[in-house]
Task: inverse folding
């Protein structure tokens, strides 16, 4: 299994994906999508990494899915209903769907997959098969369950083959099936019997662990068709005249603050929130991409994010800290160089506010006082999006209701704890070669490779 | 009492949200004085702000809150905001050191309306909306048939529009395509319908034909060629200043048998479809005396002297005219997508070709063209569609074209597109 971190993290978003064609638009007449050809994709990460490797979404399907606008839509389940005030949900499976090995999609297989993917801290208390349906029950209401099931975490994989063996490779019901993994290149073949219809390209070859610089080089010399563009390098991609597809903001960069240990006092956490300079992160580290944010959900999703002030106030931070002088704090982040830079900038900010912060690797400090991380903004429904985001942050809190006042209060009350400090909303982007056609982004900002086709094939 | 007092004025768009927000503000403040400020972060035009302010002041007053100057201890800051989908009015109510928030929804964000202009104007009217892909629809006196990849759906007329009456699975099942296509046509007996999908042919028969719900479709595996032109190509007499109206007889194509005049059930050309892909192979019956390349769309175009020729949109993006046993490239089709259909509008030359757009934009467009010799000349402004056009065909009477549009949310709608002569 490939080991490098991936940028294709679990992210979803409600809005229509936006094509930002910077240069090189094809001028020839546009036709219906062509079938055939091999799509060459490169990624920094491991395409098979669970739960968010980019290949998993091509091989597996969920019970539900987000449509391009972020609305929850049927996938392997064709309909669902809740009872008992959202304590019980029943999802009816789509008939005549088969796994890549030919075995039928049945409810017991779905239950086995869900139990394997979620053994603890699940949104449900129990899941079981009832005929051609899957039934979830919980001690607490699950108003957001259909949206939660659309996440990569709960994609359905075959866990036992017909002869009772654990499959050697990932087997699902998706538009592509595992074909080979050689020399760091994962090859997926089109699933002719896909319930959504056969994808247009015959195969997708995903080059793993490719540094961004190498990806762009491969794109420029025609060795790659789809490569990654980190948000902070969008401007550089523009300067290099790449054809870039950009999503709306689909991930929240946030500082998670421990409410135990050195930062157990709420005033210290409030001082941390006042001491961070979002403007510097936005302007310097992320090269003015995305949006500064002090709310969990973006303005485009709720319309009220301006109610959360994002300005830095060092004096207020010092005032809040008062005479308290906390012991040295640890700030952890993953191995991503940009996040490392952002963490160092935050440590500098907090030093000016009277805190002594040391940046460490998340791998070495899983219980750090502060954790800089990205969280998904998924789905068009603000309540669902908030529930998913909070769950990603470790809070298993259902969010019900469509009333904007109630939603604002839920967000406000959570942020008032100062255990999560929103910083920036970032888009996702990829660059494509001139032969790629009809590539759209999914609601999470990742490219919908199954819907893409190639020029010059038939 | 004056006359005006007896006639209730129609409520404007801001009255309801203003009243709701004022009620919430007053509920927090109670009777008294407050300073009101308004800022606009939404797409509401600036000249609407005084109207909104006046409404808020009036409604607050009705709840006992009197507006005062900045010296007031209470401040109400109203922000007119919006998300990608809806407008919100947000009030931050400050009483001393305490601030409370009230939020009301003031309706969906208004979409921009596109306008069209040109020699004729294309108009679009939605017939049907569906969650599943629609491949084709056929309107009959008894009802409407919609062809989906796995089902045939029958609709009947209702006061509110078409109402689904019956849904039948297409058996035998076959491999699905990601870009599925299909064709529907009236049966030769005029009592039912015929449907063609990749590898399958269905017929819908009815004893009475009085109601679509009486139809009983039967399907079988089939590689039969699909009808691509059925006699809706006759040039209508040119008309000015009116919408399309005149039916006319169909002329004979140059290399094909002459069809029965105005008989929409007689196929003029059939084309073999590649079941594993999304295009016609290029083999047509009857033969045109020239080898055709694989193509996505074909339509019979009336030509001078009552003749006709077959226009095809190749899978290479080239539009060519099969005429007099030869293939001729057609100029002016650079902006065409791969779907087009003939529209007998009665405007201008009488017949136009309506083609989908070739742009990379998220939303497609339709535009009418006239074929002058071997050059397509735009006859209308583009008509913006709310998504990607996935199918386009001529209605049985030829006076409109029907388009299936898939929007960004993967919902489908069937639109009837007609022409208005300018």
Result:
């Amino acid at each position: 299994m490939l080991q490098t971190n991936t940028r294709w993290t679990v992210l979803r978003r409600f809005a229509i994906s936006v094509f930002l064609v910077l240069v090189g638009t094809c001028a020839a007449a546009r036709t219906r999508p062509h079938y055939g050809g091999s799509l060459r994709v490169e990624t920094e990460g491991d395409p098979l990494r669970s739960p968010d490797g980019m290949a998993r979404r091509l091989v597996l399907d969920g019970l539900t899915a987000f449509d391009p606008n972020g609305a929850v839509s049927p996938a392997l389940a064709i309909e669902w209903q809740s009872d008992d005030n959202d304590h019980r949900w029943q999802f009816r499976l789509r008939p005549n769907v088969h796994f890549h090995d030919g075995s039928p999609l049945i409810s017991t297989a779905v239950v086995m997959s869900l139990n394997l993917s979620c053994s603890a801290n699940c949104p449900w208390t129990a899941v079981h098969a009832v005929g051609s349906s899957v039934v979830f029950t919980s001690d607490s209401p699950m108003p957001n369950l259909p949206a939660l099931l659309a996440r990569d975490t709960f994609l359905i994989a075959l866990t036992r083959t017909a002869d009772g063996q654990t499959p050697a490779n990932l087997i699902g019901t998706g538009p592509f099936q595992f074909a080979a993994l050689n020399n760091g290149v994962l090859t997926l073949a089109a699933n002719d019997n896909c319930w959504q219809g056969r994808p247009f390209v015959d195969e997708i070859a995903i080059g793993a662990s490719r540094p961004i610089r190498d990806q762009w080089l491969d794109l420029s010399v025609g060795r790659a068709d789809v490569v990654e563009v980190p948000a902070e390098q969008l401007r550089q991609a523009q300067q290099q005249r790449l054809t870039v597809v950009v999503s709306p903001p689909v991930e929240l960069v946030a500082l998670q603050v421990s409410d135990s240990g050195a930062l157990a006092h709420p005033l210290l956490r409030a001082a941390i929130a006042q001491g961070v300079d979002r403007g510097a992160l936005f302007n310097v580290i992320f090269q003015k991409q995305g949006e500064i944010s002090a709310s969990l959900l973006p303005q485009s999703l709720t319309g009220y994010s301006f109610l959360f002030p994002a300005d830095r106030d060092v004096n207020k931070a010092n005032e809040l800290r008062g005479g308290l002088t906390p012991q040295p704090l640890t700030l952890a982040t993953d191995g991503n160089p940009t996040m490392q830079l952002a963490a160092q900038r935050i440590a500098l900010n907090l030093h000016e506010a009277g805190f002594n912060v040391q940046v460490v690797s998340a791998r070495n400090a899983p219980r750090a006082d502060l954790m800089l991380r990205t969280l998904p903004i998924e789905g068009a429904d603000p309540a669902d999006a908030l529930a998913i985001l909070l769950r990603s942050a470790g809070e298993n809190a259902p969010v019900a209701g469509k009333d904007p006042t109630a939603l604002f209060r839920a967000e406000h009350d959570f942020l008032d704890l100062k255990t999560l400090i929103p910083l920036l909303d970032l888009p996702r982007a990829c660059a494509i070669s001139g032969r790629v056609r009809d590539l759209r982004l999914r609601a999470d900002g990742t490219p919908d490779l199954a819907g893409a086709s190639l020029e010059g094939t038939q | 009492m004056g006359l005006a007092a007896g006639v209730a004025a129609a409520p404007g768009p801001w009255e309801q949200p203003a009243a709701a927000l004022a009620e919430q503000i007053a509920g927090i403040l109670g009777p008294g004085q407050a300073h009101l400020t308004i800022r606009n972060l939404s797409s509401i035009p600036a000249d609407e702000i005084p109207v909104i302010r006046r409404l808020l002041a009036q409604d607050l007053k009705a709840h006992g809150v009197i507006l005062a100057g900045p010296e007031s201890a209470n401040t109400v800051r109203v922000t007119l905001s919006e998300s990608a989908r809806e407008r919100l009015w947000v009030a931050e109510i400050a009483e001393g050191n305490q601030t409370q928030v009230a939020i009301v929804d003031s309706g969906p964000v208004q979409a921009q309306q596109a306008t069209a202009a040109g020699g004729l104007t294309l108009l679009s009217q939605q017939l049907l909306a569906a969650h599943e892909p629609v491949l084709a629809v056929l309107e009959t006196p008894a009802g409407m048939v919609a062809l989906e990849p796995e089902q045939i759906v029958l609709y009947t007329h209702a006061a509110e529009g078409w109402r689904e009456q019956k849904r039948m699975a297409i058996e035998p099942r076959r491999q699905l395509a990601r870009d599925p296509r299909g064709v529907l046509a009236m049966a030769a007996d005029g009592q039912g319908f015929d449907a063609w999908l990749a590898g399958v042919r269905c017929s819908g028969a009815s004893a009475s034909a009085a109601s679509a719900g009486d139809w009983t479709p039967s399907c079988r595996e089939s590689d039969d060629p699909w009808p691509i032109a059925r006699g809706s190509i006759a040039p209508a007499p040119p008309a000015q200043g009116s919408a399309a109206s005149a039916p006319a007889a169909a002329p004979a194509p140059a290399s094909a048998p002459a069809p029965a005049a105005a008989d929409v059930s007689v196929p003029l050309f059939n084309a073999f479809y590649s079941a594993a892909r999304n295009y016609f192979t290029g083999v047509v019956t009857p033969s045109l005396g020239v080898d055709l390349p694989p193509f996505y769309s074909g339509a019979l175009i009336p030509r001078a002297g009552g003749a006709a020729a077959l226009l095809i949109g190749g899978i290479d993006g080239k539009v060519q005219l099969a005429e007099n046993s030869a293939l001729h490239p057609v100029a002016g089709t650079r902006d065409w997508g791969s779907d087009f259909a003939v529209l007998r509008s009665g405007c201008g030359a009488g017949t136009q070709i309506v083609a989908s757009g070739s742009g990379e934009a998220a939303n497609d467009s339709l535009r009418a063209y006239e074929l002058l010799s071997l050059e397509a000349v735009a006859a209308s402004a583009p008509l913006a569609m709310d998504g990607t056009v996935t199918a386009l065909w001529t209605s049985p009477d030829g006076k409109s074209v029907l388009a299936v549009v898939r929007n960004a949310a993967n919902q489908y709608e069937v639109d009837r597109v007609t022409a208005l002569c300018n």
Summary: The radius of gyration of chain A is 22 Å. The first strand of chain A starts at residue 18 and ends at 20.
